[in-house]
Predict the 3D structure of the following.
Amino acid sequence: MNKIIFNQHYRSLLFLAIAAAFVWMQSGCKKDAVEGGAPVITSVRNYAASPADTLVNNITTGQWVVLIGHNLKDAVQVSFNGIPATINSIMFSDTSAAVLVPAVIPFPSVSAEDLNTIHYVTRKGATTFTFGIVAPPPTITSISNESAKEGDSVYINGLNLFFIEELTFAGTPVTKYSTAGDGTSIGFVLPALTQSGPVVVTTKSGTASTPFNVNDFTTGMLCDFDNVNTFSWGTGIENSSVNFPGNRGNYAVLSNDVLPAGDGTWWGWQRSINTNDVQWVPVDSLGLSLDDYAVKFEISVPTAWSGTSIYVIKGYAFDYMARYEPWQGTNNTVTPFTTKGWRTVTIPLSLFRNNDGKGSAPASLSALLGASGNGAINIQTKNFAATPSASGLKAAIDNIRVVKIK
């Protein structure tokens, strides 16, 4: 009898132990499901020091954000509007993830299912969070030809140039244009212009305007070989009907064959453009930044150019120069350069450097231009390489000017 009672008591204890173990296992599985399951995003915060680290209602390209939620560690992909972001596992925890929204999102080509979504993938699963992702205001970085004529093809380069609501060039509306899918350019045929003025692009996200005027043959003009002709000596002068069509009036020509190593005989025939003394920058503006002003000119290069360097100096002092080498790429790569017609070159004065244009910038505008800001502007050619130049050069230059760009 006692034996039977003992067995029943033992079986009861065993049942309770097994039941407890089962409950514990179930509890552990639920905990794993919460802490180690698929990711969940609950909100988005601005990635900044307090008090700027607030919750946000929408985000834009190039913005650092913190995604808040659960199971966010060990992310393998995060995408915004279907565009993958660069991820860094060090900046991810279980409840938060700091991510840089991609700098370029081609909004017009984003599919309907990807629009306004954050897609988050870990080794345990994935989630899609619906959230407002808006295009930032447009920016303009350059104009292909600031002195273009009616009928010329013109390109505006920049960022976020899509969802365009209005475009004007020197005050004239442009109604027919094409845009790059990634928002980096607008192309159009220039209509007839009646005045000078800025380029203005208005999109759904804002407005961008150039700080300088286009179709402007007066402001900052140092030499145009026609109405403002300070040309002193050097290269030959031609007319637009000869070898470089599409320009207005006269222009100067730079031309040389393949140059020997280190050849800097800029005084040779068609190797330099030399003006009389001109006012680069007004005296009362010499306290501004070097980045505020730029040398500009139009150039036409009809045949492949891949070796000779063009450089710009003030007067005949070679202490600072700016080198123009559009064929020179990164890591010493060379890509032959040509233009279709005329193109605008912009060289900020901060790119004038010592040591043959490869050293340090001057400390100020006064250090570059002197106390008067006045002197000749000379554009010359040289082969800076220790080997013969990869090509010769045949180029036309016009409308030499120094313009405030900021």
User: Anything to note?
Assistant: The longest strand covers residues 393-404.
